[in-house]
Design brief:
By secondary structure, the protein is mainly alpha-helical. The protein folds into 2 domains: 62 residues, Arc Repressor Mutant, subunit A (Orthogonal Bundle), CATH 1.10.10.10; 143 residues, Up-down Bundle (Four Helix Bundle (Hemerythrin (Met), subunit A)), CATH 1.20.120.530. It is built from 9 helices and 3 strands. A 3-stranded antiparallel β-sheet has the order 1-3-2. Helix 5 runs antiparallel to helix 6, helix 6 runs antiparallel to helix 7 and helix 8 packs antiparallel against helix 9. The longest helix is centred in the middle third of the chain and has 27 residues. The relative contact order is 0.15. Keywords: DNA-binding, Transcription, Transcription regulation. It comes from Nonomuraea zeae. InterPro entries: GntR_C, TF_FadR/GntR_C, Tscrpt_reg_HTH_GntR, WH-like_DNA-bd_sf, WH_DNA-bd_sf.
């Protein structure tokens, strides 16, 4: 469906910073960029507005970044949901409901994310980190949690693009990933939840310190 294609492509352009927070976008400009008619683009912009990534402005939309307080709230919700998905994934692993190949994929993602982060390739590291956490959410088997997290991840990613920088302690971040992976692999739900929650809140604290005045 053309609307879905338009929505996906525009979302990618927003998330990678091609259209940064504050950027104004009209239907005509977007249609030209995507080489599509204006009708699916119009519907795509409405969908992105519903997801909180843009807001209507005149004849087009403006890309939205969360204010500091709203961003804090987004991280709090993300921490709670990722604690839940980590707990569910570990419980499903303990019950023998996760395929070994999925755990291998999770480990490979953790390893690749650590390497790319250590090298300071932050745009790629952000993508890999999101894939790592998304796979955990998929392994949790809760589609509502996954859907909600997708929206929150999008809003956080757009809102933190300006403060994107290599973490001051990449080994600490990678260590948290390894601890989370071990808790899930060993089927320890409560520990997985605690590690995941702490990891997300640590990420927010680090991002907060890199922000300018809100």
């Amino acid at each position: 469906m053309q609307t879905d294609v338009a929505c996906s492509r525009l979302r990618e352009l927003i998330l990678d910073g091609t259209y940064p927070p504050g950027a104004r976008l009209t239907e005509m400009e977007a249609a030209t960029t995507l080489e599509m008619s204006r009708t699916p683009v119009r519907e795509a912009l409405r969908a992105l507005a519903a997801d909180g990534l843009v807001r209507p402005s005149g004849r087009g939309v403006v890309v939205v970044a969360l204010e500091r307080d709203a961003l804090d709230e987004a991280y709090q919700v993300r921490a709670a949901l990722e604690a839940l998905t980590a707990e569910l994934a570990a419980a499903r692993q303990r019950a023998g409901r996760i395929a070994p190949a999925d755990l291998v994929s999770l480990r490979d993602l953790a390893t690749e994310t650590a390497a790319v982060t250590a090298e300071g390739r932050m745009a790629e590291a952000v993508r890999l980190n999101r894939r790592f956490h998304r796979l955990i959410a998929e392994l949790a088997g809760n589609s509502m949690a996954l859907h909600t997290l997708e929206r929150i991840w999008d809003q956080i990613q757009v809102s933190t693009l300006r403060s994107l920088a290599p973490p001051s302690r990449p080994a600490h971040v990678s260590g948290q990933h390894e601890s989370l992976l071990a808790a899930i692999t060993d089927g320890r739900p409560e520990e997985a939840a605690a590690i995941s929650r702490a990891h997300v809140l640590d990420t927010r604290a680090t991002t907060h310190s890199k922000e300018g005045p809100a």
